[in-house]
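Aim 2, interim progress. The first record below pairs a target sequence with its structure tokens.
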Amino acid sequence: MKKENYLYSGLSERLRSEWKIYLAAFVFIIIADAIGQIRIPVGPGVLILFPIFYSIFLGILSGPQLGKFFSRKDVAAASKLVIVCICPFIAKLGINAGANIATVISAGPALLLQEFGNLGTILLSLPVAILLGMKREAIGACHSINRETNLALVQDLFGPESPEARGSLSIYIIGGMVGTIYFGFMTTIVAALGWFHPYALGMAAGVGAGIMMASATASLTAMFPDMATQISALASASETISGIDGIYMALFVGIPLCNWLYKKLQPVLNPQGARDAEEGK
């Protein structure tokens, strides 16, 4: 039987090598939690800054390009810990889905079929990503909203060091920093147009990202206080369903569609990138 080679001889060696990562993560959590949510009124709605925003921002400031508290070796080690850290959250999603199975069954086709709408963003984002020079990173970045379950799926399918995983992780980070602000602001603008019923906007808020749903729901309930209870209930149901069927939609439709479109569009939109990919650059 072939002997497996590990990067560390044991847990103690790993702790000695990566102690700065664990210490900084703990400190960042304490600081972010102490700051809490910051609500900024914008017109009839509200923008919300969540603690994850501050944590990611502190991590960027301490990286090798800026604060230099971490080295590139630390960054590489931390990237492998992402999947470990989100496993408890993924387990929580599964438990939550089982506890709310009655809600899933009674929600009706509008909620169950909403994931098909999320696939439409692939047709918009993938060509833009290729035009901007992205290679196979575009597949991981564009196949979904790239929250915890999607990040775990991409790392499982392609590996944590793959370009697809890098693309997925990039959107996961950007989503945490910018997505919450964008969702709250976009919800305010769309609701002010009056094109959609508040209940429909409540359902649309549950895209599979808890912090983004919270940001959008906060804006909606501030604009429609008389419907706050119904909007929150529909958003929660939508979020639950997105967490259940979203992973299967990404696995069986989103990623295959991105792969197919990438093969078709890369030679047309970015010929040089296609040649570099063939040469392994």
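The second target in this work package is listed in the same format:
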Amino acid sequence: MIGTITTMTITEAQDERRSLMRLMAWLSPAFPTGSFSYSHGLESAVDAGAIASGDHLENWLSDLVAHGSGWNDLVLVAQAWRSGADAGLIDELGDLAEALAGSAERHLETMAQGDAFLDAAGARASITADDQGELPGDLAYPVAVGLVAGREGVPLADTLTAFAHAFVSNLIQAALRLAPIGQREGVRVLASLEPLIAATAERATEAGLDDLGSCTFRSEIMSLRHETLHSRLFRS
């Protein structure tokens, strides 16, 4: 009896570690989605003087996560995870995610990353025991991540937390290249946002499509303005 319990515990622990490694791989800068080339309108915000310090960046990112595109993406991740790989539902979520992209560059950002993610995730699955058939194409990034995480049995709460953390981390890295914000300040901002990331991810586990909504208007405007910015480091 003791041996059986021990074996089950070891198996569960191994499954948890595999899930963790998958999330670390999928949402790592090394995973070929090209996330480093997008600033989500942050470049325009810095150019306009809206973000000039770590405190400015922290406030901007906290709004995105709790009330803006970051929140919407988490809801879409959760819905795609729950879809059970239902093709019709995934198509509907993909269309909705595209409609929520408020500018041409936001649309490019989510669709290009989604396609790249599915391509890389499909290549990974082809050399593991987790291949469950060919992945679809032309999906927005959060829908793609949610679909793959659900198919591979990665826990929803962990998926949402990792996705939100990667979203924030990527924008902090962009800010370090754009604004007079040092690496130590960037680390401080990331640490200060951890409670919000965890709480928002937990909220998203229970959210439905009726909970979608954004009120971060300045971020949307900055994304539109980026299309005509005189010089640019980023694609969005």
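Residues 94 and 139 are 5 Å apart (CA to CA). This observation will shape the mutagenesis plan for the next reporting period.
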